[in-house]
Amino acid sequence: MHRLVYFSNANLDLSFSAIEGMVEMSAERNRLRRISGALLYNGLNFLQILEGPRQALTPLYLQIRTDSRHSGVVKLVHERISMRSYPDWGMKLVCDAPEHAAATREAAPREDGLSAMVDGFFRFGQAAAFAELR
Fold it and tell me: Which of 9, 35, 62, 127 has the greatest number of CB atoms lying within 10 Å of its CB?
């Protein structure tokens, strides 16, 4: 079992309903591939956590890197894990964009390193300097 985490810049033309649709379709496909995970969105960027068999994650990540709905994809983590953080989520949207946070806020399972990464993503994503990376 492996975990892959990446960060990217959301396409500014992407609507929130399009993101929700993307997550819904991904959840169904991921379950068939025995992949679980979460897509975190802060209004500007994505942080996606994918867990599953390495032979399923590698081709999925290669496909994700070329997706036009985001840019600047950077792999942050690719590690072997003993158990999933998101065993029941084919894909779940966790959002901290101010206009959508209340509708999608989920209590994400936490691990020490993963928790810090998620918390840092939402704090950092609100900083004005972050937008300059786009």
Answer: 35
Reading the chain (134 residues) residue by residue, the pLDDT tens digits are 999 999 999 999 999 999 999 999 999 999 999 999 999 998 889 999 999 999 999 999 999 999 999 999 999 989 999 999 888 888 888 876 555 444 444 444 445 555 565 665 555 444 333 333 33
Q: Are 85 and 111 in contact (CB under 8 A)?
A: yes
The count of other CB atoms within 10 Å of the CB of residue 81 is 14
Count of domains for the chain: 1
DSSP 56: H
Residues with Cβ within 8 Å of residue 102, at least 6 apart in sequence: none
Q: What is the largest CA-CA distance in the chain?
A: 39
Residue 32's CATH number = 3.30.70.100
